[in-house]
Amino acid sequence: MRVTVADTTEIKLPHLEDLWKWPRLVNAHLPEIERECLEWSASFGAFDAETQRLVHEKGKLSKSSTVIYTVLEAHEEGILTGKRSILDLLAAMCYARMPRGTYKVSPEFVRTGCDLMHLFFMFDEHSDRASPEEVWEQAAIQVDAIYSPSKPRPRGEWVGGEFTRQFFLRIPQSATETFKQRFRDTWVDYVKSVAQQAEHRSHSRILDLESYFPLRRNTSGAPSTIALYEMYMDIPGEIRRHPLILELEELAVDLIVIANDILSYYKEQAVGDDEHNIITVIMNQFGLGRQQAIDKAGELSAAKMDRFEHLYCRVPRWVGPVDLDVQTLVDGMAQCVSGVLHWSYESQRYFGTRGLDVKQTRRLRLLPRRKIDGSHGGQQHGQLVPKPGPVPVDEDSMVLVANIVE
Q: I want to staple 332 with a disulfide (CB 3.0 to 4.6 A). Which of 6, 177, 229, 280 is the partner?
């Protein structure tokens, strides 16, 4: 049940990315693999023509930013020219680098990351339009596909089964069995949580913070996103389950969740798509106004950032290659947070073509709340990859929802 509070239509965003010490990076291999990923995703016919167009939509920066900096293996700063698919750009920003040494950033690494973002998007698009019973069936199909990738999918089955099966088969042969099992575990948690959220959505149920975080950590898809950093690793269980490493991972996931919820909120609330969002949760639980809830979420994020940085400097050291594995994994957690923070302004998904202006001014003017037609309850489960569709526009003035407050 939603608690209604009289509120302003103007908000100010917290400086999340300014508090995060990890830089904005883009994987330099993206131009090599992007076309293949897009063609692979399109081959399933999983989307209607309009949605497929949005999958291929390019992220466009405002005129004030004409270059996108990348990190090259030679530690040189280069320029990634052209415009990138928003899904592939997200992967390239989350999987921008690995420490020099045993592992280097390779095309197959970022290609798998791009495939993953397309898989997220596919399930998000289909589950958002399905009943809870249908989403549970979709989840079961994906679990079967990821555990039996060599088994052909039944004729006439939901397209997500073959999409998931091929994703797993496209994982590089050099990936370790340890990684594959860990990824399966995170994916099972993810698809089940999406089905659980579909049930909440059908009843317009808003959770409290204590119930929200355990579910949202999985619906975000962040654990699976982070798991890709272990693709070539074989970290022993007793090390992977070290309390400090587990806490760092949970902090990184929470930071991704909070950032995504804050930065997507203006769009979600405009179309009645905000029940699975920390801003609505805080407003509802504490009876706060919109700006107060945003400020509270920002403060929570800042505290978690401080804790992450504190623990990052205290990661234990081990003898042998596993030490580099652990350092790579923990740095990857941080890079995923950075990728989500900066991508949110550059992808056009949340702020249209004025993302970098929003990033500078922090101020937004929101449109009145609207409803989505043709979906089960109008709420998506809020994973990392956003729901397709243009940024809402004021029909009278044709001003973006993200119109900057003068």
A: 229
